Amino acid sequence: MRSFTDTVFALPLKPRTALVTRDAEGWSEALATMGIRPVEDAAAESGPPDLVVAPAERIGAALRQAPPCLIVEGRRAGRGLRRRGYAVRRFLPLPDPVSPKVLLPLAKRQQLRYAVDRSPPSVAWKRLRNRLAIPLLAAGFPPPGRQLVAIGSRERGPPFLVAEASRRFELPLSPEWLLVPASGDALSRGTFHLFPPGQEDPEWVLKFARVPGYSESFDREERGLSLAAAAGGEVTRHAPRLIGRFTFEGLHASVESAALGQSLVGYLGSAASARDKLAAIDRIAGWAVAIARSTASEPDRLATERVRIRTEVLPRWTEYGASSAILDQVPPVPGVLQHNDLGSWNVVVDACDASRPSFTALDWESARPVGMPLWDLWYFLQDALACLDGVSGLSENDLARREAHAVRLFRGELQNSKILFEWTRRGVVACGIPDRAVGTLATLCFLDHGLSQSNREDAARRHGSQARALDMLWPSLARRWLDDPALGPGWDRWR
Fold first, then answer.
1. What is the DSSP pairing of strand 37-38 with strand 17-20?
2. Which fold has domain 262-490?
3. Is the model's pLDDT at 123 over the cut of 70?
């Protein structure tokens, strides 16, 4: 499902039917996945479709349908709609209309400034360009040559999920909002950043499913945030607070407190000094070790996790040489609270005090109350140190570069390998892990995460989507970990 189709969620009402005109590519399948019935022949219907999607060049044909809502794509998107009585909002998709990371709302200075500040470019001239662009975008003038997406609706009001959240949780009735489309497969969630009237920063985040009936992410995240809240102290201080959950016409959604700052991915690629970036990485790595130390439980509490690994993980790697003997090599070790998805994309950092930056760990949906020690630390450092070295992205070439970087990092061949090894030693001491168990724990970590892509595809199929999950690093890295003689269960370069 392409993320630009998330503009449907900016409408004040949820469409039940939609007509997609010619040349509006990528919409029909996405709308069907959202539970919106496609209309092939508007003349055969008893009334106009709830929504018409059209390129700007076909706006005349779209308006002849007289629909309650329209979505128009193109440079001239939105023109002529107000004269027909539609309330109009125009968006600039960045970085491109097909896979936008954010939909910049024209004529909304508050949200524009916030969106630009969240991900400042590392190049000075681009930061200056963005600053100069804000007044023009706030005045409703997009950059030359850029494509827009516009929504038009007869009914005025906030997006239908925002209105429902405001009603249920006593939020402002018409908060300002910024729509951040989902990135990835159909099960990825989109978000609204919600601003109290007159405030520069959001106070809440509304997450929503794009597939009707899909509640698993919300169920898991509610449990994860409950674990974080119950852990108290350092854990709670760096986790969002769940405000509540709701369902609207089959779509699941939740509201939680907003995390202020910018994504760690963006910060590590920004113009901040190398010293400040390393301070942020050390702060979060130290937190991962502190969580493991403060939540450590008796080794026998890992019995259920050991059974899961033995029955659900290792059998799926037998063709690559894995067996239950790997698990048998792990002596009694403490079980710890595990975030289990502590990538740089799930950390928001506020570096006002660069020597001790504050941060928030997002998306606790994969958290385990009792998991293996050191897994969060390795997961985080592998990704953060790659971002620090300028190795990121999701293209096939990017994934190959990230795999090579991770292998060299754990082999001790990179300058930043010393950071990984130093934190591994600290984690080993903090959790009281025997040296001989470290390589085996790392192997189990990569094999478990190596199943995340196929597990997500299985979940998508259960909800009617046959699309592949977003390609991930972990399956190929798990195979490399088993193949490389310097890695695997005998990995000891960390010493």
1. parallel
2. Aminoglycoside 3'-phosphotransferase; Chain: A, domain 2 (3.90.1200)
3. no
The gap from C-alpha 470 to its chain's centroid, in whole angstroms, comes to: 12
**Which amino acid belongs to residue 224?**
G
321 is written with which tokens? 């040489």
212: left (phi over 0), alpha (psi -120 to 50) or beta: beta
In the chain, the amino acid numbered 458 is: D
Residue 453 confidence class, pLDDT cut points 50, 70, 90: confident
> If you search the block for the tokens 């936008």, which residue do you land on?
100
Report whether pLDDT(3) > 60: no
Domain boundaries, the chain: 1-106+142-157, 159-258, 262-490
pLDDT (mean) for 447-461: 82
Question: Residue 73: beta bridge partners?
Answer: 55, 149
Q: Give the 3-state DSSP-derived string for the chain, with helices as H, strands as E and coil as C.
A: CCHHHHHHHHCCCCCCEEEECCCCCCHHHHHHHCCCEECCCHHHCCCCCCEEEEEHHHHHHHHHCCCCEEEEEECCCCCCCHHHCCEEEEEEEECCCCCCCEEEECCCHHHHHHHHHHCCCCCHHHHHHHHHHHHHHHCCCCCCCCCEEEEEECCCCCCHHHHHHHHHHCCCCCCEEEEECCCCCCCCCEEEEEECCCCCCCCEEEEECCCCCCCHHHHHHHHHHHHHHHHCHHHHHCCCCEEEEEEECCEEEEEEECCCCEEHHHHHCCCCCHHHHHHHHHHHHHHHHHHHHHHCECHHHHHHHHHHHHHHHHHHHHHHCCCCHHHHCCCCCCEEEECCCCCHHHEEEECCCCCCCEEEECCCCCCEEEECCCHHHHHHHHHHHHHHCCCCCCCHHHHHHHHHHHHHHHHCCCCCHHHHHHHHHHHHHHHCCCHHHHHHHHHHHHHHHCCHHHHHHHHHHHCCCCCCCCCCCHHHHHHHHHHCCCCHHHCCCCC
- pLDDT value of position 112: 87
Mean pLDDT of the chain: 90
What's the pTM?
0.89
Whether 106 and 90 have beta carbons less than 8 Å apart is answered as yes
Measured distance CA(187)–CA(178) in Å, rounded? 20
What is the DSSP pairing of strand 176-180 with strand 87-94? unpaired
- The Cα–Cα gap between 352 and 242 comes to 25
Q: Distance (Å, rounded) from C-alpha 259 to C-alpha 389?
A: 25
Instruction: Give 104's strand partners.
Output: 92
- CATH of the domain spanning 159-258: 3.30.200.20
d(CA 376, CA 386): 16
Separation of alpha carbons 106 and 179, rounded Å: 12
